[in-house]
Amino acid sequence: MELSYLSAVVLGVVEGLTEFLPVSSTGHLTIAEKLLGLQVDAPAVTAYTAIIQVPAILSTFIYFRSKIWRLLTAWVRGLTNAQARTQHDYTLAWAVIVGSIPVGLVGFALKDVISGALRSLWVVAFALVLWSAVMWYAERRHTELAERGVVRDEGDLTIKDGLVIGLWQCVSLIPGVSRSGTTISAGLVRGLDRVSATELSFFLAIPALTAAGVFETYHSRHDLGGLGLGPMVVGCVISFVVAYASIA
């Protein structure tokens, strides 16, 4: 089952547009794959759906490189320096680390279910519709908190925020539920402003999607050959470019 160059371009655009917007990238990729005549639950297609996310994550590294470096250095300094542990960047780094653990554990434990039974257009359709109600609630809740003047910015973000939002992120393992949608919605419900909730969503995406992409690449390396190297490379390049533009 070889991937055509046209299909690769389409899937790259869909991934780049939907990965960081609060809509489901996996859900939309699954729909696009079905429309393109691909077998959505085939091992190679399932693997490519995860691998094409890696260039999108690379765009996050590049766009936020200075802030990522700042958080990393603050975390390393804080491990040995008590004064450094009082800095907010140290707390934010721990929030990202703690928030990334739940989705890794759940994703690994349920990997066969996620790549098998849940790769159904019925699941995607229901998830897309039902999760929109959660996003609507998050917007309402955020508006209420803003009217009361209790919305917090990045400086007030805690490790507990990272953990709670990371737990919400586990729901996005269901195809059709947006990863960025879950994390941004969770941030809004917890009273973070939009910028803080969105940036934390980006940072939480880095370890989660990088791990998923690396795991799928290694685990399915023998299945990917049938898709064709050229189209896969083109799809990844398109994914990177469009994702960078979406973040910006």
List the helices and strands and how they pair.
Blueprint: H1 5-18, H2 25-35, H3 43-51, H4 53-63, H5 65-80, H6 88-109, H7 111-115, H8 121-147, H9 159-169, H10 179-189, H11 194-219, H12 229-247
Helix pairs in contact: 1-2, 1-12, 2-8, 3-11, 4-11, 4-12, 5-6, 6-9, 6-11, 8-10, 9-10, 10-11
Description:
- With 248 residues, the chain is mostly helical.
- Helix content is 73%, strand content 0%.
- Helix 2 runs antiparallel to helix 8 (121-147).
- The chain is globular.
- It starts with a helix and ends with a helix.
- 43% of the residues are buried.
- The model has no long low-confidence stretch (mean pLDDT 87).
Keywords:
248 residues; mainly alpha
| Sheet of most strands | none
DSSP summary: helix tally: 12
Radius of gyration: 18 Å
Portion of residues within helices: over 70%
Mean pLDDT over all positions: 87
Number of strands: 0
- Approximately how much beta-strand content do the residues carry? under 5%
- Helix and strand succession? HHHHHHHHHHHH
